[in-house]
Structures are given as C-alpha cells and as structure tokens.
Amino acid sequence: MSETYVPESRWRLGVAALLVGGGLLLGGIALVRGGFGGGSEGASSGTDVSRVAFRDADGNRHTLADYKGKVVLVDVWATWCPPCRKSLPEVAELQKAGGETYVVLPISVDRGGWGDVTPFLAQNPQLTLTAYVPDGAKALDTFGEIRGIPTTLVIDRQGRLVKRWSGYGEGMARKALDEALKGR
Questions:
Q1: Band (20; pLDDT cuts 50, 70, 90)
Q2: Phi-psi bin for 155: left (phi > 0), alpha (psi -120 to 50), beta?
Q3: Can you give the pLDDT at residue 11?
C-alpha cells in the first residue's frame, strides 16, 4: 500500500462532507417545495401582504396589518443558515433603531419553531433580537414561495410589498428601508 491510499469509506465521507458544506456555502438555500411559502414564485411589487401572520415569544398573534402606517422590513431567516447568521447583527441594529416610522420583523422558519429559536437567541445575547415565528404552516404563503434564505421583504405603509430579495449583502436592507421611507 502506498502512503496516499485512502480507504473508500473515508473517501466517500470526505466527498459527502464537501457536498454538504458546499450546499450551505451557496447561500443557505432552503429547498422549500411545501416549506416556507406557497405559490410558484414570490409576490410581486404592490401585492397586499398585510394578512401575513406570525407569533411572538409569548405566543401572541400579529399580522402585518398591525403595522399599517409604518414601513416594515421582514427578514425571513433560520438559525442553521450561515448567511442568515451573518445578516442578523445588521437586522438587529435596524430593529433597535426602528420607531415611529418603521419596524423590523425577523421571522424564523426553523422547523422546530421556538424550540430552535429560543436556545439560539440565548446563545447569542449580543444580538438583542426580538424574533417571531410564522403562525402556522401557511402563514407566509402571501409572500409566495421563498426559495432561499435569508429573504428580505420591504412593505410600505399601506401593507403592500415594495421590494423583495434573497441572500445577504451588507447594507442592502438599510438602503431598501431608506428608499421606502422616502417613498421611492
């Protein structure tokens, strides 16, 4: 045997690890056929999304209609998603700065719901993030199919979708929020 021989089982394990790792690095894609949202594509600009419902950590139900009169930035994320974890400090910062004119709602689509979110937030207290979970399996359907996370949606003061994108780019959420606040 030569020194470079790798048993087939170790080789297969290495290939499997590379494939799994590569999948995570390619944007935390959430293959969601039957997962986070219905429909064949995302909601288009101008769609009324005010009926989207979610719950806070105390179990209280909210809808986007509760925030009419404010611009809303929704961040759809999961605890296991590397790009989501990278975006959360910015989301938390925007959330803290919100007030009379806008609100930021990070909605986790972890399959374990609060069972996944609560320990994650406890392990990351520096975020000081107030998170939410969908109010049922079809709660986010109005957004259309969410094929990748994070997905960010900007909603105007009347509850209509202004902008939507998947993936994280530093400063994108702030820029989109500023544009929506200016009425562009």
A1: very low
A2: beta
A3: 44
Architecture of domain 28-181: 3-Layer(aba) Sandwich (3.40)
Give this prediction's pTM.
0.77
DSSP string of 24-69? HHTT-----TTSS--SSSBPPTT-B-TT-EEE-TT--EEEGGGGTT
User: Which region among 19-23, 27-31, 82-86 has the lowest average model confidence (pLDDT)?
Assistant: 27-31
pLDDT at 174: 95
Instruction: Please state, as a whole number, how many other Cβ atoms lie within 10 Å of the Cβ of residue 180.
Output: 20
Q: To 10 degrees, the CA torsion angle through 174, 179, 183, 184? A: -150
Distance CA 22, CA 83 (A): 13
Domain ranges of the chain: 28-181
**Tokens 């202004």, located at residue:** 162
